[in-house]
């Protein structure tokens, strides 16, 4: 009778019985059921309906209690002496034992309970799990959590709570404080479990929203002691709450939760419009992304239309997006269906734009790949057709044939020809796609592009050379005379030999520009490179071929570019070459290059064959020769290029600078004219340096401003005079020297050398009143920030004056007791030794 009453009550109102039992404690509820069932003498009824009671009543967390309490109460022989199964009348006791041992065997398809407060805590880091929308795969490696999940599955309680971690970078599977996670999550059912020993693999299905109430202590360590006590006297394990201090120290594995039921809503026209817009956006996304389409098909319900279920539609729509974890958690926590739909619609619109952009980029990349593939396919077909017709040979054969054609036009030395033949033979056995093939091909390309046996015809006509040099440069007689001597010796000897010349002088005197004129006068190819600041020997002698991206030095590059064995090579700024470093000493590398006895067999590191540089004319330039090492200076013929005086600058400006600058500015002759007096004033007050570089800048400045006045209509023709010169170049930089017609007593004039040329200065002498007795020996004070040499000169002059006066004018005792003050004004413009 008790059996029938209990079963009828469970069928009629199971939530009352189960809910009341959960409030009293899970073990007490089960003990009450067991006590009632003991009163029944018909064990067959129990066995046939045991699954029913197990589903509605047995939700204990004690694995030992469920198995042993059941076996003790209900196992045994029936009336006919047969063994009854723990899972039903048809299963044997051995099958029941295997089910308890294997967690996966307990995952039978059962109805998920509506109330299940105490669940294991599972954590996710990137995106939350939504109810009734997806199957999520998780992997667990924490030993404590693995043990808890195995026990729960064995008990037939394959449920858990999945909550999102606040920190996405947190990789922990268990936490010590509930503040590390969001308090709203999803109640999930473990659909499948695979035990790999040290880790678990699970498939989870979300069911409903839940909220954390508190953390619950796991009582698995007390199970062995409690299983021997009376069932009715068991403590309430599910309500054993730990205090906050313990939660901070121990990992939280179990939590007590409460359901978050959906708020009631009215299906208004506004709600219907929002659902329709969400469906439309989802269709648009699915049309672009096929993966989204598959996800939708897996989660669509079969018993209800999606448009009639806004709750499911909101969860499904949010799950389809790739939004941030915080945004998806906000959707999960929102209980107002209207607000939730609005949030999901915004995320879907954003996802739609991202999907369109991804599709656009993917199409662009796909089209590009298809085009390249099509081009490659057509190219390979064309090669095959040409090969069949005999029009084109293999790549390797074409490369070898190209090198052999180059060699026919060159007079290659024997030692170089031998190296080329060896490399060609080596190249014929290499795979065209190998890296060694490219190295050998590049090496042969350099060897076959060198000007072996090629020379330009030298000019032995002195008059032509003189005309070329005079047309380009004014003065510089020493340099021109040396070039004429070089031409004369070459003409007398009948052969051309190289020389090493160094032109040194102040900046702007034309050292670099005259080198190009010399190359034109001699009919030689011209190549220039600067060694200022160079610290790497490889820039001169090349890299070893073993290095990736290696190449020859500047000299070999020059010969390849000019295609001549007798060019004129200008090595600029040789006095500013870098010092020795871990890359080597470039100065020492120049010794072999600039030595006439060694450069006939110059060895570049890359080519690794001797190259004859004896026919090359090397011209080096320097501002000062003190910084050039003595061994290198000894190998060069030094020619000084002095600065220009005012008359020379005037001629250079009239004959060269003004015509060239007018042509560059597009000004025709006669439109702008500069008077000679203006040029003299410009040179005297603005351009006192040794060279003419600054003079050229000032002339360009005048012509630019003149061009502006002409184009703006301010004038039709301009004449630059001494009166309007300052309008174009500004105030004078150098003032007039102070001169005396007759120097007053105590003042004498001197001359000094400066960086701007020569200059005059005055030495002023005066007496000062003595504060002491008149018979004391005289003194002398020197001012003007003089150098040591100038101070010594003043002392020598004072001593000589005293001796001269004492010898010729014995009665004159002025210098013996005079207090003298000697001052040199404007001494900052002077150059002191």
Question: What would you note in describing this structure?
Answer:
- This protein has 833 residues and is α/β, with parallel strands linked by helices.
- The strands form five sheets. Strands 1-3-4-5-6 form a five-stranded mixed barrel. A five-stranded parallel beta sheet has the order 8-9-12-7-13, sandwiched between helices.
- α13 (310-319) packs across α15.
- The protein is elongated.
Précis, in short:
This is Lon protease homolog. With 833 residues, this protein is α/β, with parallel strands linked by helices.
CATH superfamily of the largest domain: P-loop containing nucleotide triphosphate hydrolases
Main sheet characteristics: 5 strands, mixed, barrel
H/I helix tally:
31
What structural class do you assign from the helix and strand content? Answer: alpha/beta
Any guess at the CATH architecture of the largest domain? 3-Layer(aba) Sandwich
Rg from alpha-carbon coordinates: 52 Å
* Outline type: elongated
Low-confidence stretches: 1-101, 221-248, 829-833
Q: Using the coordinates shown, work out and report the CATH topology of the largest domain.
A: Rossmann fold
**DSSP helix fraction:** 40-55%
Q: What fraction of residues sit in β-strands? A: 5-15%
Number of E-type strands: 19
Biggest sheet, strands in spatial order? 1-3-4-5-6
Number of domains: 7
> Whole-number average pLDDT?
78
In whole angstroms, how far apart are the ends?
A: 132 Å
What is the oligomeric state here? single chain
Briefly, what CATH class of the largest domain?
A: Alpha Beta
GO molecular function, one term: ATP hydrolysis activity
Catalytic activity: Hydrolysis of proteins in presence of ATP
Pfam families: AAA (PF00004), Lon_C (PF05362), Lon_lid (PF22667), LON_substr_bdg (PF02190)
Keywords: ATP-binding, DNA-binding, Hydrolase, Mitochondrion, Nucleotide-binding, Protease, Serine protease, Signal, Transit peptide
